[in-house]
Amino acid sequence: MKRWEREIAHLREISELRFRLDDKARELQASEYNRRLEGLNHEAAQLKSMQERYIPRDTYGAEVGNLVKETGIMRVSFANLTGRIFAIASIISLAVSAVFLAVASHFIK
Questions:
Q1: Distance from the CA of 59 to the CA of which of 19, 52, 73, 108 falls in 20 to 30 A?
Q2: What is the pLDDT of residues 44-71, one digit of tens each?
């Protein structure tokens, strides 16, 4: 075998080895990508689960604001009704006192 044929054979072996190593590197890279993708899919599933369980901060803030307004309205209404009850109780007390005085004055004479 001539020298240049040996060099060509040697270069061919080196090229084949390089192609095999490139193929092996691509297989390893693909398996690493799959491993990382599985991890990302797991994280995505966890994030989706969290989004299903929790409400966004904006929604929470809006709802709390609505509750604060409604609570204020309820406090005003409660105070109004309490005042009305005291007024009605005072009127009833005054009426009972007037009836008592009228009946008592009838028996005292």
A1: 73
A2: 888 888 888 888 889 999 999 999 999 9
pTM score of the predicted model: 0.46
Burial 38-60 (b: 16+ CB within 10 A, else e): eeeeeeeeeeeeeeeeeeeeeee
In this prediction, residue 109 has a pLDDT band, given cuts at 50, 70 and 90, of low
List the end-to-end C-alpha distance of the chain, in Å, as a whole number.
Answer: 155
Q: How far is CA 1 from CA 4, 12, 13, 45, 75, in A?
A: 8, 15, 16, 63, 106
Number of domains comprising the chain: 2
Quick: pLDDT tens for 70-88.
Answer: 999 999 999 999 999 999 9
Residue 26's domain comprises: 1-54
Alpha-carbon distance of 96 to 98, in angstroms, equals 5
